[in-house]
Specification:
Layout (H helix, E strand, L loop, with lengths): L2 H15 L3 E17 L2 E18 L4 E6 L7 H14 L25 H4 L3 H17 L3 E17 L4 E17 L2 E9 L7 H14 L11 E5 L1 H8 L2 H4 L2 H5 L20 E3 L20 E5 L2 E2 L6 H7 L10 E3 L6 H5 L4 E5 L2 E8 L4 E6 L3 E5 L2 E5 L4 E4 L1 H5 L2 E4 L3 E3 L2 E3 L2 E6 L6
Parallel strand pairs: 7-12, 11-20
Antiparallel strand pairs: 1-2, 1-4, 2-3, 4-5, 5-6, 7-21, 8-9, 8-11, 9-10, 12-15, 13-14, 14-17, 15-16, 18-21, 19-20
Length: 426
């Protein structure tokens, strides 16, 4: 559907609702991917999905119907189903009508790439073929996924608001291994041509060789160096619990911390709608998105708040618009390593779980490369270990930051953490 057709459809859905309050959201998505494992292609998918979400309300209660019948003739029956559910719904003590009319939504054109939106199979197959061939030539095993996708959104409210947005993404994520030695890489971009496939493959090939003959970690104090993937693995947990309601209820690490320093002076976290990882222009509530500073020089400046919480507490309603940027500095991992006397380089974390949400204590494992660094050089591979750390402890001791890289929903840098004794468990 064209953007105009989607807008026409959601307006028609609102008109068909027959209720004082209504909001219609239309989603159209296409996801095409190639999966591979054991050096062969195992699956090729190309899926198109369309969905209408119609929410109706009468000022005290509401009801929502989801339908895959995307045609004008179906709107009356969909609306009738929603009204029927509304009649039997219980009053909602947190009822909020659709956002007031006159909202102005940002336009984020750079989130779309025409070539990627077509989801052509040839470049994906070529990229996967390159990964598989290189792995085979070197006696490695490889597995992963290569994808292209597009998303289209449109919504309308009974208060007269309407907006649309479209976005694309391409990506390649893969592991190579030989015995216990392995390495991993994920690269993503708005457009397919943003991906540096050959460079990623060569890096992983080299890193697998570096990761052989891993040793136990000697006791001592170490500087910790996080590659961007590892930084993101920790950072991605913040939006999950960075919420004003849970903070007010005393159930999160952010309780009572607004305006207070939680990390080091060089920790800055923000959402930039028009950054290298573009954001989205509106929330599920129909709120306009905006650039937001979440952390400034280590101080917690803002927390996401839905409209009900914002009205109840006097806050401004805010949400994370599908993009986070952790400010970095200049330099690659090699540049950062040059200043490390004795350290441990970590490429990636996985199997991460909460130990305590109130302190944001996490537990997890390293994976796909841990290395001992001495006098600016990688000297040998180390065995993977379990850790129990608080990200804010690490982010309170940042020595240096490198050039940010794009990761899913964010831009994050490599990070050097001050030397001290860190508990490692084999």
């Amino acid at each position: 559907m064209t953007t105009q057709e989607m807008l026409d459809f959601v307006r028609a859905a609102v008109e068909a609702s027959g209720t004082p309050d209504a909001m219609a959201v239309l989603k159209e998505e296409r996801a095409a991917c190639v999966r591979f494992g054991q050096n062969r292609i195992t699956q090729n998918l190309d899926i198109i999905e369309k969905e209408l979400i119609l929410t109706v309300g009468d000022g005290e209660k509401k009801a929502t119907v989801t339908s895959q019948r995307i045609d004008m003739d179906a709107l009356q029956s969909i609306a009738a189903e929603a009204r029927s559910l509304l009649q039997t719904s219980s009053p909602d003590p947190e009822y909020m009508p659709p956002v007031a009319g006159g909202q102005v939504y940002p336009v984020i054109d750079q989130a779309w790439d025409d070539f990627t939106a077509e989801c052509p199979a040839e470049p994906r197959m070529e990229a996967v073929g390159k990964v598989i061939d290189k792995a085979g030539e070197n006696g490695f095993q490889t597995a992963g996924i290569c994808w292209m996708q597009n998303q289209n959104r449109a919504f309308a409210t009974s208060t007269g608001n309407q907006a649309s947005h479209r976005s694309t993404e391409a990506g390649l994520s893969f592991t190579m291994d030989k015995g216990l030695a392995s390495s991993y890489r994920t690269i993503t971009g708005t457009g397919w041509n943003d991906l540096k496939v050959s460079e990623a493959v060569e890096k992983v090939l080299l890193q697998v060789e570096m990761n052989r003959d891993a040793r136990e970690i000697p006791e001592g104090d170490y500087t910790i160096i996080l590659e961007p993937e590892a930084t993101w693995n920790l950072l991605m947990y913040l939006p999950w619990i960075m919420d004003a309601r849970s903070a007010d209820e005393g159930t999160s690490v952010f309780s009572g911390m607004e305006g207070i320093r939680m990390a080091g002076a060089n920790f800055n976290l923000k959402s930039c709608l028009h950054g290298e990882r573009p954001g989205i222009p509106f929330s599920e509530e129909g709120l306009p998105a905006e650039d937001v500073v979440w952390f400034e020089n280590g101080f917690l400046r803002n927390l996401p708040a839905d409209r009900f919480t914002a009205e109840k507490t006097g806050r401004k309603p805010l949400f994370v618009p599908d993009t986070l940027t952790m400010e970095g500095g200049d330099g690659t991992i090699d540049d950062l390593l040059a200043g490390v006397k004795k350290g441990i380089l970590i490429r990636r974390f996985w199997y991460i779980r909460f130990v305590d949400e109130k302190t944001l204590k996490l537990t997890g494992m390293t994976r796909d490369g841990v290395f001992l660094v001495e006098n600016g050089k990688i000297v040998n591979s180390l065995k993977d270990f379990r850790w129990n750390w608080r990200p804010f402890d690490l982010f309170s001791n940042i020595e240096r930051l490198g050039t940010p890289e794009r990761k899913p929903y964010g831009m994050v840098p490599p990070v050097v953490i001050t030397a001290r004794h860190y508990p490692f468990t084999g």
